[in-house]
Design brief:
Helix content is 60%, strand content 0%. By secondary structure, it is mainly α.
């Protein structure tokens, strides 16, 4: 047991835990004023665009729910 601990403590660790430099996938828009303004303006344009109405989806889900309830009531009554 002591020899194993001694081997671990005296092992060559020169190639263990080497960390290479990481590249930055995106440039931080706060890095300069022009990039930040472009970023902020892009966010405003995306937020101002109207989104599609979900009313047809809710109507369809309501119709399906009514149909399921009608089928269940018919099966229970019959």
């Amino acid at each position: 047991m002591r020899t194993q601990i001694r081997q671990i403590l005296t092992a060559d660790t020169s190639d263990v835990a080497r960390v290479s430099a990481m590249s930055e996938p995106q440039i931080d828009p706060a890095g300069n004023t022009q990039a930040f303004r472009a970023f902020a303006n892009n966010q405003d344009v995306e937020a101002a665009q109207p989104k599609a109405s979900r009313l047809p989806i809710w109507i369809a889900l309501g119709a399906v729910a009514v149909a399921v309830i009608a089928v269940v009531a018919y099966l229970l009554a019959g």
